[in-house]
Amino acid sequence: MNAFEEKLEAVKREMGGKYLYPQDGTTKVRMLLEPGRNPEDFFQLVLRQYQGKNHKKYMIPVYALGDNNEWDVEVRYFVVPVTVIKGMLEIMADGEYDLLDPKEGHAVAVKRRGQGFDTEYTVIPSKDPVEIQPDLIEWERDLEAQAKELEAADRDEKPDPDPDEEEDFPF
User: pTM (2 decimals)?
Assistant: First the structure.
């Protein structure tokens, strides 16, 4: 990878921040399970605001596969519609693929086609398991708090401030 490609990757990561959304084409992710959560509760409901209306989306902690075919080392929060969650649940209900086990879990490719009400999503498991390195399993582990933070950002609000923190005024 040349210096421009490396810089492009860095900019893309900064643009997306900690939230990741399905892109046109394919987005590949390796799902993580928050410790203490039941496997069937691997996602968190997020109410997104769009044109003054609430829209249900779902948030999943993941490692994402970058354009350079290397897994990000930072956990991101994949925000997806119900059709993607349904596809993931169908794969796991079938019992052939585990998407959550750190050693034996499979990655998934989420393919997005179309726009607006004509958007279609397909979820495809990887052929082989994708092991998560033990030193990469540490991450912010409060999926519900992450969801609330995203909901607050939609409303142009900040999460509840620390009542013990004093505000500095410039006058």
Answer: 0.78
